[in-house]
Amino acid sequence: MIGLGLAAAQGASAQAPQAVGRDQGAGNPITAIDWLSALSAAGIVVPDSGLQHNEPPVSQSALTPPVSSAPLGGVEADAVGLLPTSVTGLPASLWQGSTARDIAQRLARLDVTSSPAMQSLLYTLLLAEVDPPGETPSEGGDPLLRARIDKLRDLGAVEPALALIERAGPKTDPALFQRWFELSLLNGTEATPCQSIATDPGLAPDQGSRIFCLARDNDWDTAALLLDSATALGNLPPAEAHLLSRFLDVDSDDTAVALPPPARISPLMFRLSEAIGEPMATAGLPRAYAVSDLRGISGWKAELDAAERLARTGALPENALLGIYTSGQPSASGGIWDRVAALQAFDTALGKAPGGGTDAKVLNTLPGAWDAMGDAQLRVPFARIYGAQLAAYSHDAGPAGRIATRAALLAPGFEQAAAGLTAHDDTDRFLLALAQGKPDTVAPPSEAARLITEGFAEDTRPPEALMDQIRQGRLGEAILGAMELYLSARAGDLPSVVPALATFRAVGLEDTARQAALQLILLDDHV
After folding, report:
1. Given this model, what pLDDT does residue 341 score?
2. pLDDT number for residue 77
3. Which domain of life is it from (predicted)?
4. Residue-wise over 339-363: b if at least 16 C-beta within 10 A, else e?
5. Other C-beta atoms within 10 Å of 371: how many?
6. Residues 271-311: tens digit of each pLDDT
7. What is the full DSSP assignment across 412-477?
8. What pTM, to 2 d.p., does this model score?
């Protein structure tokens, strides 16, 4: 494979074990190590080291960007990452030739909510340990690092965001410390930043955070004194001052009528409301707030809603999702309860099934579980959990066999699995050929399939603008450009998939191209 041997966004691991999820049930915190381990188990950041056996050649239409090297030294904040180049396959020069502010703005605009393939690639870019851009911003701080953290927060990936901050050193930049404090409030680990504030009060992002930490450390008198002073000087928003006052007043009337939630919520106000017995629902808040519902204090329904919301953006490992799905018994019907019941019935049947792929209970429960997970836009997490096992059921002539084929194609190891899967119609035949990198060997059954075939053609080149970026060493920008094109295709501009796939392949992201193409058909019903 030419290009850079970049991280294939998924697809190198043959199976995603179920047992992890059951051990990681509701109420058990997800650590950054758990999160990264789950990504690895799903094949999300496995490097693509070259051509696989019988893999067709990749388009030869792009130049290999230069890779620079530098001696080891002090850690630069923008260079901080959780995944070294030996894991991601990304070159250290990923952002060289670009400006931090331009990359930060493009990351902020990128919406990968609808695309698991682009989510996986984006996580790899955000967590990669690469050199910072060559241009140093004129003002203080590290805009690219902040943008990476903010994007992780936007996706709901709180633990990796915290891990990035801790790698960079939260005390090195007031903006980093504020993010550290706020994210810690959301996942219940605020003790550590509060300890730092106790040691050096100047680190506190604002008066409210210092008052909260003082009270948390049982220094109620000092907290009350600071609250009175800050309120008198107008240094606190009225809603925050009110919540802090109630938080500090342990003798307040518990029967008082609760005030409506303030129009603008901060993590501190969110936790204060929880502390005074008036917790806010997270459904209408930014996705990162959903993490707080996974601390085992919100009830199973809230945990289920939060888990599904986070899983849709890849922020919750699929095995953790499974653990929450199977941690109780539905006590009602309709909506999410029907989905939980369908998933549990299938999971139980599969767990008890003998080998051979003929178990009637599995075949009977699979369609209901597949449809239920589709309603929640969670078919890819479902496939990552069960796809490898379902490959054995692909031969069944009924609807379960067709579902098994498609689930296996959405799972890690899809290329290897494709050779043994059964095609049930023309679309399946095309998908199996696509999974093996040979879409041109089967007649395209739809317009989307025709465009995908064009995107995989050896004579299809990336757009000239992206080619120029690659030649100039602006590889990261070229990848972002390809992602934007693909997301446009998912949004309805189907022809954009051609240059997107051509660019992914040109820079060595072969597995990303295949996954993206498979998902375009399987998740958007372009059959």
Report:
1. 98
2. 60
3. Bacteria
4. bbbbbbbbbebbeebeeebebeebb
5. 14
6. 999 999 999 999 999 999 999 999 989 999 999 999 999 99
7. TTHHHHHTTPPP-SHHHHHHHHHHTT-GGGS--SSHHHHHHHHHH-TTPPPPHHHHHHHHTT-HHH
8. 0.86
Query: What is the C-alpha to C-alpha distance for residues 363 and 369, in angstroms, rounded to an integer?
Result: 11
Instruction: Please enumerate in sequence order all residues whose Cβ is within 8 A of that of 398, keeping only pairs 6 or more positions apart, or say none.
Output: 363
The dihedrals phi and psi of 190, each to the nearest 5 degrees, come to -70, -10
Task: Give the ranges where 312-421 is alpha helix by DSSP (H).
Answer: 318-325, 336-352, 360-375, 379-390, 399-409, 414-418
- Report the interhelical angle of 116-127 vs 475-490 (nearest 10°): 160
CB 192 within 8 A of CB 184: yes
Number of neighbouring beta carbons within 10 Å of residue 54: 10
The full length of the chain comes to 527
Nearest-Å Rg of the Cα atoms of the chain is 25
Contact (CB, 8 A) for 167 and 128:
no
Q: What percent of the chain has pLDDT over 90?
A: 75
The gap between the terminal CA atoms of the chain, to the nearest Å, is 30
Whose structure tokens read 């706020």? 182
pLDDT on residue 132 = 85
pLDDT above 50 for 13: no
Range with lowest mean pLDDT among 53-67, 134-148, 303-317, 404-418: 53-67
More confident residue, 223 or 140: 223
Establish how many alpha carbons lie within 13 A of residue 524's alpha carbon, considering only the half-sphere containing its beta carbon: 23
How many other CB atoms sit within 10 Å of the CB of residue 291?
Answer: 25
**Tokens 């806010």 map to which residue?**
280
For 412-455, what is each residue's pLDDT tens digit?
A: 999 999 999 999 999 999 999 999 999 999 999 999 999 999 99
Instruction: Let me know: does 205 contact 178? Beta carbons within 8 Å.
Output: yes
Domain map (residue ranges) of the chain: 336-524
**In contact, 498 and 458? CB cutoff 8 Å:** no
Tokens of residue 236, six digits: 């606190």
